[in-house]
Design a protein that fits this description.
Helices cover 33% and strands 15% of the residues. The chain has 11 helices and 13 strands. The N terminus is likely disordered. The chain binds S-adenosyl-L-homocysteine and iron/sulfur cluster. S-adenosyl-L-homocysteine binds next to strand 10 and strand 12.
Length: 396
């Protein structure tokens, strides 16, 4: 059973809704097996009075069916005796996030609006390319951090996604791409970026547990080298992320002076640039073959001067960081206080960084027409509720 001690608070500016971490029965009394590790699965079976040896064997079979075969029905599990299917069905489910809406952009990018059982909405985005397919996964409903250029940061409601809801996004993408059973070759879904809604390092345990499932070679089997976790700079959690998850790191730097970063990434007032870069230098496993990505959103007359570019190079050199810089043209959203830098400015910035021997590609915005591009994620339900509020205000 869940106790208050299991509820994990989320730090930030708004009071988020804490949610239980491990398995709790759903409203129909059944336990969702999705998101459970092998050990937790076994425990769930033992809690349901399955004898220890049986539980061990069945847990292994169930785990394989769930994460390797993508099964959602116990009746499909041919190596589990038919007589046991009703027993399992009465007690357990294997869920998927509920899909509220699925959209396809003119450039092939797909966005799904998902809804949890407690009616919280979050989004995931699939970006197909010639040689890869990247799933952009959310870690929270909304985000507590309020970066001034990011639409997600303006959502009022925030809660951590559970491991089931995080790994569920990957499962759902595999369902819709028809990529079961899990195969090492010829997949469309090849990469995962934790760059959807939310700050993954403010939901550390759930993100870690979900990614462990994603990386398990016997299940979804995505290599940690094909997974990237993006953080706005939660310095105290970065060492743990390196040690306990070990995926590629991306850091949302976005500015090189305290004044500007304090404004656009308010978390900078807590953990400054130098502290952040030191944590990057300490991040395990980085070398020239495995660099840290620094994301830099291009905001007109804010952070995009030649001097900024030179300062960026100086900082990356000072900390001897094996780095690549990802220049992201600002994606506008209604009411945003910024404009995107001009293409000439972006070019000039990029060539200064590139001239210093650091790769600095400009990221092509994808899925802008369906609000699927970086920083545009804000759920339709919240947009609707705002419209609803406006209507109510007009009637009053
Ligand atoms: N919270 C994490 C991960 C999600 S955001 C983080 O901030 O790193 C993924 C990336 O999109 C981040 O680099 C974020 O700063 C960037 N981003 C946010 N809003 C944007 C916008 N309107 N235009 C372009 N990039 C944006
Ligand atoms: Fe949160 Fe990242 Fe958006 Fe900042 S940029 S508000 S940390 S999702």
């Amino acid at each position: 059973m869940q106790t208050a001690a299991n509820l994990m608070p989320i730090p930030g500016h708004i009071d988020p809704v804490p949610v239980p971490r491990s398995f709790v029965p759903r409203s129909d009394g059944r336990i969702d097996l999705l998101g459970l590790s092998l050990a937790d699965l076994r425990m769930a079976l033992e809690t349901s009075q399955l004898e220890e040896k049986q539980a061990k064997l069945r847990a292994k079979q169930l785990w394989h069916w769930i994460y390797n075969r993508g099964a959602t029905e116990f009746s499909a599990m041919t190596d589990i005796s038919k007589t046991m299917h009703p027993w399992l069905e009465q007690r357990f489910v294997i869920s998927r996030p509920n899909v509220v809406e699925a959209q396809v952009s003119t450039d092939g990018t797909r966005k799904w609006l998902l809804r949890s059982d407690d009616a919280q909405d979050y989004e995931m985005v699939f970006i197909p390319d010639a040689d890869r397919g990247t799933l952009c996964v959310s870690s929270q409903v909304g985000c507590t951090l309020n970066c001034t250029f990011c639409h997600t940061g303006t959502m009022r409601l925030v809660r951590n996604l559970t491991p089931a809801e995080i790994v569920g996004q990957v499962m759902l993408a595999r369902d819709s791409l028809g990529e079961w059973p899990s195969q090492p070759e010829g997949r469309m879904l090849t990469n995962i970026v934790m760059m959807g809604m939310g700050e993954p390092l403010y939901n550390f345990e759930n993100v870690r547990d979900a990614l462990k499932l994603v990386m398990d070679g016997a299940g979804l089997a995505l290599s940690r080298r094909r997974i990237t976790l993006s953080t706005s700079g939660v310095v105290p959690m970065m060492a743990r992320a390196g040690a306990e998850i070990g995926v590629n790191l991306a850091v949302s730097l976005h500015a090189v002076t305290k004044e500007v970063r304090d404004e656009i990434v308010p978390l900078n007032r807590k953990y400054g640039i130098e502290e952040l870069l030191q944590a990057c230098a300490d991040y395990p496993g980085t070398n020239n073959a495995r660099r840290i990505t620094f994301e830099y959103v291009m905001l007109k007359d804010k952070n995009d001067s030649d001097a900024d570019a030179h300062e960026l190079v100086r900082l990356l050199r000072k900390y001897e960081l094996p780095a690549k810089v990802n220049l992201i043209p600002f994606n506008p959203w209604p009411g945003a206080a910024y404009e995107c830098s001009t293409p000439e400015r972006i070019k000039s910035f990029s060539s200064i960084v590139f001239g210093a021997g650091i790769s600095a590609p400009v990221r092509t915005p994808r899925g802008r027409d369906i609000d699927a591009a970086c920083g545009q994620l804000k759920t339709a339900s919240e947009k609707k509720s705002r419209a609803q509020l406006d209507r109510e205000a007009a009637l009053a």
